[in-house]
Design brief:
Length: 269
């Protein structure tokens, strides 16, 4: 069982690096190709059909790199276009919603779970449906937080304006007596400090990226796709726009230099 082909990961922008970070921790030997569609971020405010079109193109970008598996590090795509990617990919595909839902159900003590995400993710009810499928007794309280993605993309992860907006968005959830909150967008873990402050650190924050990394390992083992090489893994970063900005903001939360970030040309608007 030794397959050195890379795992493909895509997201609407920089947030999917939280999934890459989790993957490198869970699967330190795996090569990874990451694509962030920075020219068209955010996906969460787009129509479902637009998201499906983008997801198909993002899948094609990764397939050109000969990936052995695709990880959708985007909650919006996982919510509305999972089947599009599965049909197109011809390799195993993992989304972030079911792993996040499972982790939340395991974490909650009072059976009251909050979900925050983009407008598309929240409107789809994907997390609420997944949680009810796992445990119908769990109550789900959802809230769209559309400004969080552009704030993270701007690098304002600790900015006073971001905290002000977070308090406005999250106030209803503080009244719902939740004990667990799913960060239903891969950008949102970058705001953990601010979100935790709003809840006075009284709720468990579920990072679906970490849960997804465990699910990816399981899929790789089931399909005998694990890379057992002890050579230093190769991680490639591709974006559709502004590679310099991606590298700068990415390094701030990844905790290390990303290296070369390359631009993919030719994607339709």
């Amino acid at each position: 069982m030794n397959d050195p082909r890379p795992i493909g990961v895509f997201d609407s922008g920089i947030g999917g690096l939280t999934v890459v970070k989790a993957l490198t921790k869970q699967l330190p030997n795996e090569n990874i190709v990451y694509f962030g569609d920075t020219a068209r971020v955010p996906y969460g405010s787009k129509s479902p059909q637009a998201v499906r079109d983008y997801a198909a193109q993002d899948t094609d970008v990764l397939l050109q790199h000969g990936v052995k598996m695709i990880v959708i590090a985007c909650n919006t795509v996982s919510a509305v276009a999972l089947e599009v990617v599965q049909k197109r990919a011809r390799v195993p595909v993992a989304g972030v919603i079911m792993p996040g839902a499972v982790a939340a159900v395991r974490a909650t003590k009072n059976r009251r779970v909050g979900v925050i995400g983009t407008v598309s993710t929240i409107t789809s009810n994907a997390y609420a449906n997944a949680i009810r499928q796992i445990d119908p007794s769990v109550q789900v309280f959802s809230r769209a937080c559309p400004l969080f993605v552009p704030l993270v993309e701007e690098g304002w992860t600790e900015h006073p304006a971001t905290e002000l907006i977070a308090r406005e968005y999250l106030f209803p959830l503080t009244q719902d007596k939740i004990d667990t909150l799913i960060l239903g967008c891969t950008h949102y873990p970058l705001l953990k400090n601010i979100i935790g402050k709003v809840f006075h650190d009284t709720v468990t924050l579920v990072d679906s990226g970490e849960a997804t990394a465990s699910a990816v390992e399981q899929v790789l083992r089931e399909h005998q796709l694990v890379n057992e090489s002890t050579m230093k893994p190769n991680i490639q970063y591709w974006v559709s726009d502004a590679p310099e900005k991606f590298a700068k903001v990415g390094e701030q939360f990844f905790g290390q230099t990303l290296g070369r970030v390359q631009r993919v040309a030719g994607l339709s608007a």
